Amino acid sequence: MRDVAIIGVGANPKWGELWGQSLRDLFVEAALAAVDDAGVDHVDDMYVGCMSSGLFAAQEHIGSLLADYLGQPHLPATRVETACASGGAAVKMAAIEVASGHADIVLAGGVEKMTDVGGGDATFALGSAADAEYECYHGATFPGLYAMIARAHMDRYGTTPEMLAQVSVKNHGNGALNPMAQYPFEISVEQVLNSVMIADPLHILDCSPITDGAAAAILCPLEMAAKLSKKTPIRIAGFGQATDSIQLAQREDITWLTSTAEAAARAFAMAGTTIKDVDLCEVHDCFTIAEICVVEALGLVEKGKGGEATMAGRTARDGDIPVNVSGGLKAKGHPVGATGVVQVMEVVKQLRGEAGERQIEGAKRGLTQNMGGSGGSAVVHILEVA
Amino acid sequence: MRDVAIIGVGANPKWGELWGQSLRDLFVEAALAAVDDAGVDHVDDMYVGCMSSGLFAAQEHIGSLLADYLGQPHLPATRVETACASGGAAVKMAAIEVASGHADIVLAGGVEKMTDVGGGDATFALGSAADAEYECYHGATFPGLYAMIARAHMDRYGTTPEMLAQVSVKNHGNGALNPMAQYPFEISVEQVLNSVMIADPLHILDCSPITDGAAAAILCPLEMAAKLSKKTPIRIAGFGQATDSIQLAQREDITWLTSTAEAAARAFAMAGTTIKDVDLCEVHDCFTIAEICVVEALGLVEKGKGGEATMAGRTARDGDIPVNVSGGLKAKGHPVGATGVVQVMEVVKQLRGEAGERQIEGAKRGLTQNMGGSGGSAVVHILEVA
Question: Any alpha helices (H) in chain B, and if so which ranges?
Fold first, then answer.
């Protein structure tokens, strides 16, 4: 397998409720930004992560659609889907194709247009990432599923609503420094705890928002990077993907994210490194409890200690293991198919030293963890300065 | 890149309106049949081609769901989607991963549960493979789009309704010999021409049906095939994928399937062969006119001569270039995400000499052509006896 590098990244200037942009507009803007960042004049193949353009926008076949609108009507282009981990899967597919030698320059993108839903609603569309027959049809959509995880975590490990809230407070603090964030402002623990209850113990400020957005990355063989682009190449040292029982009810321990632990183990084995060698992590904080479970599954902290570690500031921007320096899904927004790609974009910018006010000084290696459903799938990437 | 072989194939025993089987049941049956055919005891990764489990079954995230129901809850598993070419794309993805060296045994499957649509209808779901904003919302769904292609072909090349009907007659004749076919019976040109008109000049017997079904294939490195399986390995000599403007209105010539021509050119370049070296083809006859355009785009016959060649029996089972010996989409059924995989299954069975009454004697090399939308995307595979 060839070594693979990322030489370009791009996204819409600001994520949010982008009423003036359709799915195709969002994607083309992000893809062209990545092409421009890399400085390449063409791509050989394209993967688009998107969870549900069908339910959100009555549009499947978006590989073809987006290649066409990108002005590349004969480009091979495929949509990949693993619910909210679709973006991560798109980056993995692109990495495998470049590694294989079948293509040299591959675009991995992600997009979701969530605010302008025709013929349904966003909660129904998102619910399709859970088990439709055994969860959704009985009323269990994601706030409820993650609330059950939170309750179990509180019961078993003494995690408190304040600890959950602190995840949100930390990520909003970081997001306030990120120009693309949907909600770029600080909030307090009190504000989180006083915000409307969605599914006890999760308040609305424990939940990531509904967002329109897209992101893209350009991959090529590491050995060609210097010739193709002026940007510092960022090497994809490892990637791993894993699934878990899609139904929460079928898992042995709902507080433990096996898919994340397995995906990380595969990525670290490929990279020949461990979590101790990682300088920053972008992880899937779709709900505050998710980030707490993820930092445990990644081995950043001991099992059950995610809440305490957050309260102690260990995952803060100036902590020993910065998590979601970008603002995370909570502040930056969560256009589901794009999230896994923008996580990669943030780590690339950090490793290049281009992260402005939120720069982690001297960062040499970063990790992204992108998750589908209530942990039914996960994709982990380990990126490093080449 | 490593050479890649197919060592197992499987599908449901019979496709059709399978009211007793859900999406997960259909897929697991096909996947286990392929695993059993190969004789392997595990797989390392899985790709599932599926056009719209969201719109057909309110269920996304089916990679995770199906890995779970297959009894492999931690298996990496990703859905790939390029409308009706999703199955072909799944096989391509699996081939790239095996070729790369990242995984050894990879399952490529396809599934669609189309008859039990909740909260919508099948025509709406299928229409999402066209441009929602510029075609579907204005009433142009696929029978109408292909009818326009047929009218243009008739006008330009003198193709007749009888020529279109003959495609259906030929494919039903082949399908009568295929135990898995949804409609395994012969029909006559007269029956086609007297059947109800759907979108002039396409009668209902010019159209492939709505079908429930799944299919799967097991891929591995050619060099490991003999060790892993007792089955004759079938080598994937080449594959190619391409897109075209998704909107019919934006193409220079709607009778010419550029995506198919480009995908085939790439596959042949990779295989180092030409269409003249191919003994049989499985192609995407979603409508009779589609098969006529496809045999032209593949270079099997001269541009404009697809209808005449069909009438002359050249594409018949005993013709010089047998096309759709399986019965094609028309007789076998068209569960959209599964079609590209079952095309591969038919060619594998033919090359192994296991095709029973429809066996093409001495077949050494076969081609599959799987198409999305009105030709917005295409995936071509070239398979040969190793």
Answer: 23-38, 53-57, 62-69, 86-100, 122-127, 142-157, 161-175, 189-194, 222-228, 258-271, 288-297, 306-311, 328-332, 336-352
Q: What six digits make up the tokens of A41?
A: 């004049």
- Which residues neighbour A84 within 8 Å (Cβ) at sequence distance 6 or greater? A51, A129, A284, A286, A334, A336, A337, A339, A340, A370, A371, A372, A373
Q: Do B128 and A60 touch (CB under 8 A)?
A: yes
Domains A4-120+211-234 and A122-208+236-385 fall in the same CATH topology: yes
Asked if B372 and B81 count as a contact pair (C-beta separation under 8 A), the reply is no
A133 touches chain B (CB under 8 A): yes
Instruction: Scan for tokens 């192994």, then name that residue.
Output: B352
Q: Compute the 3-state secondary structure of chain A and give helix, strand, coil in percent, each to the nearest 5.
A: 40, 20, 40
Cβ–Cβ gap A125/B54 under 8 Å: yes
Residue A122 has pLDDT above 60, yes or no: yes
Give pLDDT tens digits for B180-237: 999 999 999 999 999 999 999 999 999 999 999 999 999 999 999 999 999 999 999 9
Q: How many CA atoms lie within 13 A of A119 on its CB side?
A: 19
Q: Rounded to whole angstroms, how far apart are CA atoms B241 and B269?
A: 12
Q: Report the 10 Å Cβ neighbour count for A176.
A: 17
CB contact under 8 A, A244 and B120: no
Sorting pLDDT into bands at 50, 70 and 90, what band is A117? confident
pLDDT tens-digit profile of A23-81? 999 999 999 999 999 999 999 999 999 999 999 999 999 999 999 999 998 999 999 99
What is the identity of the amino acid at B242?
A
pLDDT band with cut points at 50, 70 and 90 for residue A119: low
Cα A117 → chain centroid: 22
Pick the CATH number of A122-208+236-385 from 3.40.47.10, 3.90.550.10, 3.40.50.2000, 3.30.565.10: 3.40.47.10
List B80's β-bridge partners, or say none: A80, B49
* Contact in structure between B166 and B189 (CB atoms under 8 Å): yes
Torsion of Cα atoms, B70 then B75 then B76 then B78, to 10°: 0
Domain positions in chain A are 4-120+211-234, 122-208+236-385
Contact assignment for A96 to B96 by CB distance below 8 Å: yes
B61 in contact with A, Cβ within 8 Å:
yes
Six-digit token string for A112: 């979701």
Closest Cβ opposite residue A132 in set B52, B58, B246: B58
- If one counts every other C-beta atom within 10 angstroms of the C-beta of residue A137, the result is 13
How much is the ipTM here?
0.97
Integer distance in angstroms from the first to the last C-alpha of chain B?
16
Inter-residue contact B92 to B241 (CB < 8 Å): yes
Whole-model pTM: value is 0.98
Instruction: Give SS3 for A178.
Output: coil
Query: B66 in the Ramachandran plot: left (φ > 0), alpha (ψ -120 to 50) or beta?
Result: alpha
CA dist A183 and A176 (Å) reads 7
Question: Distance between CA B127 and CA B139 in Å, rounded?
Answer: 9
What is the per-residue pLDDT for B179?
98
Domain B129-206+235-385 sits in CATH 3.30.1330.30: no
Q: Which superfamily, per CATH, for B4-120+211-234?
A: Thiolase/Chalcone synthase (3.40.47.10)
Residues of A in contact with B65 (CB under 8 A): 131, 246, 376
State the Cα–Cα distance between residues A310 and A161, nearest whole angstrom: 12
Q: How far is CA B226 from CA A72, A157, B135, B346, B377, in A?
A: 41, 51, 49, 21, 34
Residues in chain A with CB shorter than 8 Å from the CB of B262 are 74
Residue type, A57: A
